Amino acid sequence: MNTSIVGRHINLTEPIKEYINSSVDVFKKYNLDIISVNSIISQEEKQGKKAFSFEFTINVANLDTVVVKQKDKDLYSAIDIAVDRVSKVLRRHHDKISAHKATKLTEIDSSVIEDKIASELERFEDEITPVRLISYKPIDIEEALKELKSSDAQFKVFYDKDDNMRVLYKTSTEGKFGLY
Questions:
Q1: Which SS3 state, helix, strand or coil, does residue 171 take?
Q2: Would you say residue 45 has pLDDT above 80?
Q3: How far, in Å, CA of 101 to CA of 127, rounded?
Q4: Is the CB of residue 179 less than 8 Å from the CB of residue 141?
Q5: Which of 4, 32, 130, 145 has the fewest C-beta atoms under 10 angstroms from its C-beta?
Q6: Are 57 and 69 in contact (CB under 8 A)?
Q7: Backbone phi, then psi, for 122, in 5-degree steps?
Q8: Bridge partners of 178?
């Protein structure tokens, strides 16, 4: 973020510059891509009365330039009021960005696919019965073969000693088994 401070008809002292820079640091809390902040201070005298005019020109990416002008008898109060006004604009823009949650096309496509799968599963609900694995502990292939031979099941799903999920199944040939 580039900052510049310009004084017109006024002598800029270090305390004024530090006060403006600390005020500009407040804008960072909105997490916006602020490109530059220009501060212009001018002193005017009309009918024997002094007045300070303070102006912020802020360039924010993806937003129009924000310009805030403030006049006051006291320079510091003019700066504070201008900072409050700029903060209000930046806060509104930040809230607008963070509150805008558009639904992505991929989310719409995935919900349509999930709906199709759910309706497909409902058609087969009478035919398909969900079954949980009996054991999650690893077993030997020989042990799984013995369990498959002793049961009426067509296949057995298990984890082997290497922690790989395996499927042992009966083939169409009597006494032969397949392993996946």
A1: coil
A2: yes
A3: 41
A4: yes
A5: 130
A6: no
A7: -65, -30
A8: 169
What tokens were used for 139? 């077993």
**Residue with structure tokens 């330039």?**
65
Query: CA-to-CA distance for 174 and 16, rounded, in angstroms?
Result: 95
The 3-state DSSP class for residue 7 equals: strand
| pLDDT tens-place string over residues 58-79 | 998 887 899 999 999 999 999 9
Query: For tokens 């820079």, what's the residue?
Result: 21
Separation CA 115–CA 132 (nearest Å): 24
Count of CB atoms situated within 10 Å of the CB of 53: 19
Residues near 50 by beta carbon (within 8 Å), at least 6 away in sequence: 43, 44, 73
Q: How far is CA 25 from CA 19, 39, 94, 164, in A?
A: 10, 13, 16, 56
- DSSP state, residue 141: H
CA 90 – CA 60 distance, rounded (Å): 9
CA-based radius of gyration for the chain: 36
Task: Tell me the β-bridge partners of 36.
Answer: 2, 59
Residue recorded with tokens 């805030």: 68
- pTM equals 0.54
CB burial of 131-156 (b: ≥16 within 10 Å; e: otherwise) equals: eeeeeeeebeeeebeebbeeeeeeeb
